[in-house]
Specification:
The protein has six helices and nine strands. By secondary structure, it is α/β, with parallel strands linked by helices.
């Protein structure tokens, strides 16, 4: 698959790694057990906002990108979005810790690991060995928005405001 375009189907066989939120593992230092998350199956009949960052705990991602989605989560969900998910090349343990460090609980936003950047490589949106900064809106298996930042430090077309304007 080349770069995703509006009208494309979300690919089959897309699996991420993920540590589900549980109250007993709420502490930043508590480790859950990663599981495979079959995004193709889970998202087939849902409206999903997926955004990708180059790395958890990095300044651009933690200061400029993720907070917009946390702050606008109710507005995004109010537009009929069932799932908001963020991916990065980091492993599931780091993504889980990043979620906890930002006070995101109950899987309000899914923090998923793009293991080996397999998905991002499939769509051609990587930054070296990392996931690139991009956003997709998937509506019942069809891509309705797909934009990648021109630079890894930009947060414009992949930010919450841009995504909200396309919902």
């Amino acid at each position: 698959m080349s770069a995703p375009k509006i009208g494309d189907s979300f690919p089959e066989g897309v699996t991420f790694s993920y540590v589900p939120y549980t109250p007993e593992k709420d502490s930043l230092t508590a480790c859950g057990i990663p599981i495979n998350y079959n995004a193709s199956k889970e998202w087939a009949n849902k409206k999903v906002v997926l955004f990708s960052v180059p790395g958890a705990f990095t300044p651009g991602c933690s200061v400029r990108h993720l907070p917009g989605f946390i702050d606008n989560l109710e507005k995004i969900k109010g537009k009929g979005v069932d799932i908001v998910a963020v991916i990065a090349f980091n492993d599931a343990f780091v993504m889980s810790a990043w979620s906890k460090a930002n006070g995101v609980k109950n899987d309000d936003i899914l923090f998923l690991s793009d293991v080996g950047t397999k998905f991002s490589q499939k769509i051609g949106w990587t930054m070296g060995e990392r996931t690139a900064r991009y956003a997709l809106i998937i509506d019942h298996g069809k891509i309705t928005y797909a934009e990648k930042e021109a630079s890894g430090s930009d947060v414009s077309v992949s930010g919450a405001d841009a995504v909200l304007s396309k919902l």
